[in-house]
Amino acid sequence: MEFRRLKYMSILAEELHFGRAAERLGIAQPALTQQIQALERELGVQLFHRTKRSVKLTVAGRVTLIEAIRTLQQAEKTALVARQAGRGELGHIEIGYVGSAIFSGVLSKAISRFREDNPLVEFRLNEIGIVQQLDDVGSGRLDLGILRLPVKSLPPDVAMLSLHSEPIILAIPGRHRLARLRTVTLQALKSEPFVAVQIQEGSGFNAQVAQICATVGLTPQITQRAGQFTALAGLVAGGLGVAFVPDSMRHLKIADVAYRPLAKINQQSELAMIYRKSERAPAVAAFVEQIRRSVRPNTR
Fold first, then answer.
1. Which residues contact residue 280 at a Cβ distance below 8 angstroms, ignoring those fewer than 6 apart?
2. Which residues pair with 121 in a beta bridge?
3. Residue (of 192, 194, 198, 186) closest to 267 by Cα position
4. What radius of gyration, in Å, describes the C-alpha atoms of the chain?
């Protein structure tokens, strides 16, 4: 069954006049008559009563018209969805992120900007460790990853883009003696118990902190670990130790936790996005391109 014949039927049903219907459709009246007759033969029913003075729908025609309109509407919707998907306006984007990425606002702002122009794109967010993100983006289980540097290596076909840099600071129990200082030196921490997030096998925030501490001969005495930075702040508030955290953790307002800069430490903690170089999904490619335009290019 040809969609154009259903369209011809619906226009004729509106006009109930072959001449006017043909004019609306931009075809000759005999051609319209032939197409309606062909549709009737195909269906095996008469759709219109025709006389010299009038054209009327038959009972079968009225019932068929309802379904024809539905079919045409669905066909239009299918074409629209196809075009939207091809332009990246429709689809879903699967993103993995490290927990500390949320505090910076980089990811939430990027999603908000993208959805202003692409409200039909669905985002799915998953808190995942760095090593797993690298594997999942490389294998296609994730579309993008948001992680903290450094990383050991990138899988083939995976690129990296720097998104945001911020100072590394210290989270201290509110009543701790160090909370009275404006800045804290690494040397002042040599006798302090530490709490930290789980180790990511030489990658991410912990790996960078370990490199910084090694420059002054500091080996943090870690007494307890947490799975997330929010839980880490809770351990600090409970007086279980101090913790190195990214500066954006200040946005997490928790009672009995003070945040202090580290003296003479210029290194920054860096958030980055990982993505596939050969990405073919239009929505994902459009999102990556938007982020690339919004930050200083620093592809690795």
1. none
2. 91
3. 186
4. 32
First to last CA, the chain: 54
In a 13 Å sphere around the CA of 49, the CA atoms on its Cβ side amount to 8
Q: In this structure, are strands 55-57 and 257-261 parallel, antiparallel, or unpaired?
A: unpaired
- ∠ CA 76-78-81, nearest 5°, is 110
**H helices then E strands: how many in the chain?**
10, 11
Residues 6 or more apart whose Cβ sits within 8 Å of residue 149: 162, 204, 208, 269, 270, 271, 272
Among residues 210, 228, 229, 227, which one has the least CA distance to residue 267? Answer: 210
What predicted TM-score, i.e. pTM, was given to this entire model? 0.71
Q: How far apart (Å, rounded) are the C-alpha atoms in residues 50 and 140?
A: 60
Output phi, psi for 297, to 5 deg: -55, 130
60-95 per-residue burial string, b: 16 or more CB within 10 A, e: under 16: ebeebbeebeeebeeeeeeeeeeebbeebbbbebbb
Mean pLDDT score, 239-246? 96
Return all residues near 108 (Cβ < 8 A) that are at least 6 apart.
102
The token duo for 232 is 């880490």
120-146: average pLDDT? 93
Distance, CA of 169 to CA of 248 (rounded, Å)? 9
Average pLDDT of the chain is: 90
* 93 Cβ contact list (under 8 Å, min separation 6): 121, 122, 123, 124, 143, 144, 283, 284, 287
- Predicted pLDDT at 84: 60
Report cis status (omega within 30 of 0) of the bond before 30. no
Alpha carbon 77 to chain centroid distance? 24
